[in-house]
Each structure stands twice: as structure tokens, then as C-alpha cells.
UniProtKB/TrEMBL annotation, chains A, B:
<dbReference type="Pfam" id="PF02540">
    <property type="entry name" value="NAD_synthase"/>
</dbReference>
<protein>
    <recommendedName>
        <fullName>Glutamine-dependent NAD(+) synthetase</fullName>
        <ecNumber>6.3.5.1</ecNumber>
    </recommendedName>
</protein>
<dbReference type="GO" id="GO:0008795">
    <property type="term" value="F:NAD+ synthase activity"/>
</dbReference>
<dbReference type="Pfam" id="PF00795">
    <property type="entry name" value="CN_hydrolase"/>
</dbReference>
<keyword id="KW-0547">Nucleotide-binding</keyword>
<dbReference type="InterPro" id="IPR022310">
    <property type="entry name" value="NAD/GMP_synthase"/>
</dbReference>
<keyword id="KW-0436">Ligase</keyword>
<keyword id="KW-0520">NAD</keyword>
<keyword id="KW-0067">ATP-binding</keyword>
<dbReference type="InterPro" id="IPR014729">
    <property type="entry name" value="Rossmann-like_a/b/a_fold"/>
</dbReference>
<dbReference type="InterPro" id="IPR036526">
    <property type="entry name" value="C-N_Hydrolase_sf"/>
</dbReference>
<dbReference type="InterPro" id="IPR003010">
    <property type="entry name" value="C-N_Hydrolase"/>
</dbReference>
<comment type="pathway">
    <text>Cofactor biosynthesis; NAD(+) biosynthesis; NAD(+) from deamido-NAD(+) (L-Gln route): step 1/1.</text>
</comment>
<comment type="similarity">
    <text>Belongs to the NAD synthetase family.</text>
</comment>
<feature type="domain" description="CN hydrolase">
    <location>
        <begin position="1"/>
        <end position="255"/>
    </location>
</feature>
<comment type="similarity">
    <text>In the C-terminal section; belongs to the NAD synthetase family.</text>
</comment>
<dbReference type="InterPro" id="IPR003694">
    <property type="entry name" value="NAD_synthase"/>
</dbReference>
Length: 547, 547
């Protein structure tokens, strides 16, 4: 049997466009000899639809689009992810996260998702009713078991035993000899590898081949990374699809896999690819054609500019370079100009001195003596942002902001300033990874001066000043932040279990806890860590717990 | 039996403080002759704790605090809402939303919540495992059935039959002769009345008295309104507690209720009280002692100033009055100054002319000809906000912003400007309700000139300009927004079912859909409608569905 796998990049709620994409991929797979074509979870809907599903005609229109797809399906069956109604009279949530098996103009089979994740960024319990049984069905002599997303996630691969059911086992016990999983699994550092391991264990346990079809593209701060896989019944990889790319592949299931699954690509390449795809999709899906940003000659805005050019092309990236002081050009301004020239992007220089002076004068009218060291910094950031916003609005550009995750964690960024508006490209990238990205982006061509990156890396080993405060070295900060945020360890554990300095840990912890309000007003970002702020980590803004 | 009901205002995650509050209320009730004391859902934890519960020591510390409370409990039992562990080995969510019956130094009984809401702003399925049985227990000869929050919400009072279980019926069938519900029910316009109706229907059906104890205070944009009730077995009200006030009351259950439940207070008073309590709690719980704002002489900032003075006292409210044009004082500036003087709050006048001029000059460097009508408006708003932020930071004041819900709905406010930062007091108050609030605030004393309010009401009957756009009259806008947002009707339904003008409806719908990104960066607000943006209405930021 030849399997066509199509990694679709769906737009949330755009049924006509998604149906068209599915049909194009279907026809291409059929032409390439596929006996069956598989598309991702909610491929017709776009994941995650969130509360859109509650709109009165949403599911109705989804079902109309499904009927259209069924009409267009010939002798080769097509598996599509969509949303169906649950029973109107029976108690329970109103909808189903569903898969349809379309064949010869008809919907032959409907399957509901059984395990509905409601942890991390997932809210599926809010809208969907789970399946109450899982049965395989026979097509062409093969007993096919279809599962959706979470349905195949074994206890060992999630934090704790969460579910009372195990759909994959139920299907295998009912005699399934092929497992198909359609998925919309968001990327985070290490997740493709983790998934590959899971699928290997699953195939070995089930003793059946597994077809895993994952979505691709960015929706709602999540990047779906594709990396679809086909494994044989011993868990060997028969084929894999590329990461971060909408594409299809037709694979002969009778091929035997050769050895263990290939390792997935490396973290830093994955992060680069996720951010590139994120920028591209965000700009396109919000209806913009160009993006603009402030180039400051710092490492963050330099990395964002390189990523943006890779994602959008140099013609579609515009920059403002802020000449903060009249007279001689500063080193950072010079770096900004050189980068813009190297990348070949259009940029304009603008001085903010006069605005700053008049703002200072106004402030002196309302405060006798401004002694707060952050007032100045806040002003500069807000003035930059104000100019960028005027520029963006006038020209219909999307704004890219460049605050990194480490600074957002401890509140060292300015609400209404550099961390606001448009897309926060590095909002989930820790400082140390910003350096790694800079080096990675330099591989092809030295966009960012190597000595400058080295200098920044050196600086990240030292404490740095922010206003009157002294913050710990980024290299230490990022380690402690990872323990505190990603691994959710308590301050006490980090101090006693890992031996970190108590005042440093307590300072960081307090900063993270107190600055939730700032993060909740920051620009949307692109998730690349296991615990992104906002969607994955939903802390109360105001709370008093210290652990 | 005499019931002590204590409406506790809990701080999220502050176990020592919450335990102290509970103990104080308990002792007061005992002194007043209570035979049993009831506190709200999660009274020891603060609702909603969100992902705080996943912190490694959170539940451990909660249980320590519960032990402390048990130790302090004497012959009069105390019912406390807290979080417990679910089984460590059994599959399921790790925690329980729980109630403890404390008596004579011990935890006599633990009850788990059965129906876990995961709609609207509720996410309880994310963390909690539901109870698998509901049994009453005997205390002092009375068979008591304890339920938590959602457990008593009958199908008729929620949008559709959501649950497969009905804890209240299970308890009644097992012979319960008293139902106690501990709750943390957030306020929205009309919710106290709806709850009162529900409880009446429930008591009549169960033929038992009902004790309903609700939380009070603001946490995470939600205001819990108290309004606890005791009904006899015929659904008659025996006693009620005030709305929006932390307090306790001891009530003799053997008193018969006299007739139907009293109507709860009127919408506009409730909204006023919710906003007042919201401001007060937000300022206090974020650790500020004063708030500052910009007084513009418009109806929104005037209403916010009045509410802030009622909530915090005039000494704790500071204002900036922007003199936008040199020379003669404008009417709105004069109104701002008069209001500040009437309220007796400290204010400073500051001119933004020079900043605006220098910003215009900088902008002319980057754009040949700024033709976008909103660039100017955006600049003015951001300059105001920038000054306020400097002022707030220097003096450690919390900022209050005053954008209303109608403008936020259609994106007619400025990110990084007036809609940002601090607390968005009117972010969930539609324009027409802002007028009603202004009149309500004027009842005691004419703070806001009556003619001005009348003039504004008159204007809200006319189309208004925003940049080059003409927006529909607010009075029409608010009606259509309510249908589209609160009742989730489709554009088609609003046009064909309600007969509204198609271009107007489509314009509004498009504005609402396109401006989700702005709202997601707006300041946190105080929920007063049934579908507040953000917590209750979680739409994708980028989506293409039009209904």
C-alpha cells in the first residue's frame, strides 16, 4: 500500500482555502500513485480554532466544506481532520475533534478524538466531547485504526498518567494492523526528537506500522513543525517528511525501515526554522506584505533582521535606524547601518534627540527631580516605538519587535516600547540562544560581525546593569530561568538541589513573578521553548505565592 | 441550626493571609452563635490560581495551611475551600478542587468538586480531577451535602446540557437534608439575579434548604460579588449577604423565608460596585497605594476619576491634565481641571505641544508626506501615555487607563497609548453604560456636569469620526456588539434576524475580528459583561472566518 502524506499549512477558519490546499495535495499524491492520502489534525479548520468553534455557523460551514471534499474524492481515500457536532440532546461538550475517511464521493467513516489535552497551551476540553470507543475499520483488506493527536501519547511521554483510556491499545486489541495518527503538534526545542522516540516505542508495542501526519505552519504563536513519519512494525523509520515545510510525499508501506529512526535535526536549526516560518506565516496570515523594525546595532535586532530577510526577502523588510545622539555616529548605529547594507534592506535614519529633550522638559514640569534610572530608558524605548508605529501605520507594514525571553522574564523591557506591537520574534528565545542563532545565521555569510557576537557572549558571562539594578550574568540567568520556568522547580529546589546562590535565585524568582503583567501586554511571540509565556504558562498576574 | 456565612476576599496563593482571614471570620461567627461556619470555594487558595497549582510545593503548602486551620477549629465546624492532591499513581489530573469539613482539631471530611467548568474563563479541567461519587455525611443529626461551585448549576441555567452527572440530585437521592454550596462565582451584568433564580429552582426541586456562600473581591480581571444566600426548602430567601463586600452573617436556618427571593440590586449599581471593588483590590493586591491617570475632560476619564476616588480616597488618586494646545484653555481641559478640583485630587498640567512638534519633525524625516489620519491621533495618545508612565514609575503609582469596551471592540484605541498599562478600568464597559455610570456617579453630587453628559448621550446617537473612518452611532454600535460578542450571533443573523443594516453590521464585525491583536495587548480590565475579552472570549488573533 502506498501512503500519501500531506503536511498542510492551514489558515484558522478559512474553509475554502484549506479545502483547496487539501484537494491540491490529494491530487498530487494520487498522481504520484498513492493508495490513500492522509492530512493533519483539523486540516480543514486550522489548529487551534479556540472559541471560533462556538460561532453559530462555524461547524455548519466546516461540514459543508467536508461535503465538498467528499464529492471530490475518487477511488483513492482521503483522511481529513475537521470539527463535527456532538449530539444536540445528549449531555456533554457541543463538538468533536474529528477525522473523516472520504472515499468515492462519500464520507465513509467518522472518528472522534478520545484523549483531549487540556494542559499547557491546549484547551480542547473546553469545546470537544471525547469518543467513547475506538474501533478499527477495514479498507481494502487492511484493518485501519485512526487516532488523532494526543490519542497516541503514552503515559511515559507525558508528565504523569493523565488519561483513563489508551486508544492505540484499544485499536490494537481490536485487531488493527495499521495505525494512522493525524496530528497538530506544536514545535518546541526538542519536540521533534521526543515525538520520534514516542512513535518508535508505540510501533514496537503495537507491532503495526504507524503513519504519523503532522501539520505545518504558524497559528496563534505556535509553529507546527511537520516532520511527519512512517515507521514499520518494528519501529524502524520507512520515511520522514521535512520539518517546517508544507509538502507531501508518497511512501510505499511495504518498504522495510532500515535501523533506528534517524535523529531529527539539531535544536538551533529547528529554532531558526521555526522563527523563519513563524515570521513568514504571521506576516502573510495577517494580510501584510512587508515588515518593519528598529535596527539598534544590538544582537537582538540584528538577529531579527537576518531572520526577517530569510523569511520575507530583502525587499519586504524595512528598518529605522535611530540616531540617538547628534554628532559622531555611535558604534551601534554604525553596526545597524552596516547590517542593513549587508542585508540589502531599505532603511531610514532618524534622530530622536529633539523628542527626548522635549519629553524631558515636559517631565520636569510634572516632577521636580526625576531620580528613577528607568524613566529615561523607558522614554527612549517608547519614543523609538512611537516612531516605528507611525512609520508602520502609514506604510501598512507589520512591526517586528526584538525583546528576548530572558529580559521579558525579569521585566527588563518596556511596555509600550520595544517589547510591544506586531510580532515579538525573540520573545520565547533565551539570550544565550540569541547568540547561538547569531552564529548560526552567520554560517552562510557573515551578516553580524563575529567579533561583535564574541564580545556579546563574553558580556553574557558578566553581571549587567539595568537602571540602578545589577542583573546576574545572562549565562547564569538563563540556567536558573530554565529551572524555574521550564522545569517549574521551586526557589528552594534551585538553591538547595542545584546549589545556586540564594540571593540570585530569589532575585530572579521575584522578578519573574512580579512581571507577569508586563508579559501579558507584550507582543505575541513564536513559541520555541517547552513553556512559553502566555499560551503555555498561564500564571495569575497578581499572586503572592513564593516557593 | 445557626449558619455562619463568611464572604472571604482571598489573595491568590497567599495561604498565611487567607488562613488568617478565614480564622478571623470563623471566630467572629462562633462568637455570634454560629453552629457551623461556611467559607467560599478555594477560600484558602484564592480563585483562580491558574497554573500556580502546578508549582511543586503549592499544594503541599496549601495542605499545611489547612492543617493549621483544622488545629484552630473547635466544637463549631468550619468548611474551607482548598486544593488537594489527586492520586499519585492513578491516571487523571494531579489535583482536586476540594472542600474540607474541619471539626475539633481535625479534618473530618474531604469533598471533591464533581463538575469542573471548562468554558468561558474557566479552565478547571486543566488541573483538577472530578469526584466520582457524591455522598452526604451526618453531622449533629443532619445529613449535609456539600457541593462546590458548578456542581449545582442545572442544565437549564447553562447554555446546554454539559455534564453527565448531577451532584445535587445524587446528594438528595442519598438523603441529604441540607445542601451547602461553596462558590467563587465571578460577577457579570445580571449574574446575581440569575444565580438567585437558580438557587430557588434548586431548593424547590431538592426540597432542602440551601446555603450558598460566594467569594468576594477581584482576582485576575474577575470580580467575585458575594451576594451569598440562604434559602429554605421551598426556595424562599431566609437571608442574603451584601454584594461586593467581605463580611459575615450568622443566620438561623429554622427561620422561614418570606416569599420569593428579593430581587438583587440593579445592573448599574452592580457595575459601579464591581468597578469600585475592582480598582480597590487591584491597587492593593499589586502592592500600590496610589493610582494615577490622565484627565482629558472626556466622559471616560471623568468616570474613571470618580470611581478611583470612591475606591481609593482622594488622597490616593493623582492626575495629569494635558494642555494639548498653548494659548487659551480648551473646554475639555477646563472640564478636566474642574473635575480634579471638585474631587479634590492632586493634578498637574503639562503641555505636550513641544513633544508633538519634535515627533512630527522626526516623522517628516522618515516619511515624505504622512497622509494617514490615524498617525497623528496615535502619536498624541502615545505621548500622553509616555508622560504618565514616567510619572507613575517615578512615584510608584499604578496607572489607570480609560478606554471603553466599545472602542476596544472595534480597535478605536491606541496600543501603547491610552488603552495600555496598569488597569483598564472601563475595558469591559460599553460606551452607553459609561454614560449610565456617569449619571449614577452624579446621584450624590454632580461631579460631571449634567449638560456634558447629556451632550455626550446626544452625540452617541450620531455617527462619529475616527481618523478618516465614520463609525456608526455608539447607541447602534453597542446593540450590534452585544449581539455579535455577548450572544455570539452571526453577521447574517444580525442582519436578517434583527433587521440591522448590512454594511453597518459587516463593518463592525470586521473591525471586531481584525482587532483581536490590539485587545490582546491592552491593559487588564475588570469584567462586567457576560463575554469579556481576554479571559472569557478566547478568539484566535489571526483567523479568516466570517459568519
Amino acid at each position: 500500500m502506498k501512503i500519501g502524506i500531506a503536511q498542510i499549512n492551514s489558515d484558522v477558519g478559512d474553509f475554502p482555502k484549506n479545502a483547496k490546499r487539501i484537494m491540491q495535495a490529494y491530487r498530487a499524491c494520487v498522481d504520484a500513485g498513492a493508495d490513500i492520502v492522509v492530512t493533519p489534525e483539523l486540516s480543514l479548520v486550522g489548529y487551534p480554532p479556540r472559541d471560533l468553534v462556538t460561532k453559530t455557523t462555524f461547524v455548519e460551514k466546516c461540514l459543508q466544506a467536508l461535503d465538498y471534499l467528499a464529492d471530490e474524492t475518487g477511488d483513492v481515500p482521503l483522511i481529513v481532520g475537521y470539527i463535527d457536532y456532538h449530539d444536540f440532546v445528549q449531555p456533554g461538550k457541543p463538538f468533536r475533534n474529528a477525522a473523516a475517511f472520504l472515499h468515492q464521493g462519500r464520507i465513509r467513516r467518522k472518528v472522534w478524538k478520545t484523549l483531549l489535552p487540556s494542559y499547557d497551551m491546549f484547551d480542547e476540553h473546553k469545546h470537544f466531547e471525547p469518543a467513547d470507543h475506538c474501533k478499527p475499520f477495514v479498507y481494502n483488506g487492511v484493518k485501519i485504526g485512526i487516532t488523532i493527536g494526543e490519542d497516541i501519547w503514552l503515559d511515559d511521554f507525558i508528565r504523569r498518567p493523565l488519561y483513563h483510556r489508551d486508544p492505540a491499545s484499544e485499536l490494537v486489541e481490536s485487531g488493527a494492523d495499521l495505525l494512522i495518527n493525524i496530528s497538530a503538534a506544536p514545535f518546541y526545542k526538542g519536540s521533534p526528537m521526543k515525538r520520534s522516540n514516542l512513535l518508535e516505542v508505540l510501533a514496537c508495542g503495537a507491532k503495526t506500522p504507524i503513519i504519523y501526519c503532522n501539520a505545518v505552519g504558524m497559528n496563534e504563536q505556535l509553529v507546527f513543525d511537520g516532520n511527519s513519519l512512517i515507521l514499520d512494525e518494528s519501529g524502524n523509520e520507512i520515511a520522514n517528511l521535512p520539518g517546517f515545510k508544507a509538502c507531501y510525499k508518497v511512501v510505499d508501506l511495504d518498504t522495510k525501515g532500515n535501523g533506528a529512526p534517524k535523529p531529527r535535526s539539531k535544536d538551533i536549526k529547528d529554532i531558526n526554522d521555526a522563527l523563519e516560518l513563524g515570521i513568514k506565516d504571521y506576516v502573510k496570515k495577517t494580510g501584510f506584505s512587508s515588515a518593519c523594525m528598529i535596527l539598534k546595532g544590538d544582537i537582538e535586532s540584528s538577529v531579527v533582521a537576518c531572520l526577517a530577510v530569510k523569511a520575507l526577502g530583502k525587499e519586504s523588510v524595512k528598518a529605522l535606524v535611530i540616531a540617538e545622539h547628534d554628532g559622531d555616529i555611535s558604534k551601534s548605529e554604525q553596526r545597524a547601518v552596516e547590517l542593513a547594507e549587508t542585508l540589502g534592506i531599505e532603511f531610514k535614519r532618524v534622530s530622536t534627540d529633539l523628542i527626548k529633550q522635549s519629553a524631558d522638559r515636559a517631565i520636569s514640569e510634572i516632577m521636580e527631580d526625576s531620580s528613577h534610572p528607568l524613566v529615561d530608558e523607558g522614554l527612549a524605548s517608547r519614543i523609538r516605538s512611537m516612531l516605528l508605529m507611525a512609520y508602520a501605520r502609514e506604510n501598512h507594514f507589520l512591526m517586528l519587535s526584538s525583546a528576548n525571553r530572558s529580559d521579558l522574564s525579569i521585566g527588563h523591557e518596556v511596555v509600550g516600547g520595544d517589547s510591544s506591537n506586531g510580532l515579538g520574534v525573540l520573545g520565547d528565545v533565551p539570550k544565550i540562544f540569541v547568540h547561538k542563532l547569531a552564529n548560526y545565521l552567520n554560517i552562510e555569510n557573515e551578516f553580524i560581525p563575529k567579533e561583535f557576537i564574541a564580545e556579546q557572549e563574553e558580556l553574557s558571562r558578566k553581571a549587567h546593569k539595568h537602571g540602578k539594578e545589577v542583573a546576574p550574568p545572562y549565562i547564569l540567568l538563563d540556567l536558573i530561568l530554565e529551572l524555574y520556568i521550564d522545569y517549574q522547580q521551586s526557589g528552594e529546589d534551585i538553591i538547595n538541589g542545584h546549589g545556586y546562590d540564594e540571593p540570585t535565585v530569589r532575585w530572579i524568582q521575584r522578578k519573574v513573578d512580579l512581571n507577569e503583567w508586563k508579559r501579558q501586554q507584550a507582543a505575541p511571540t513564536i513559541r520555541v521553548t517547552s513553556k512559553a509565556f502566555g499560551m503555555s504558562r498561564r500564571m495569575p498576574m497578581i499572586q503572592s505565592f513564593v516557593d
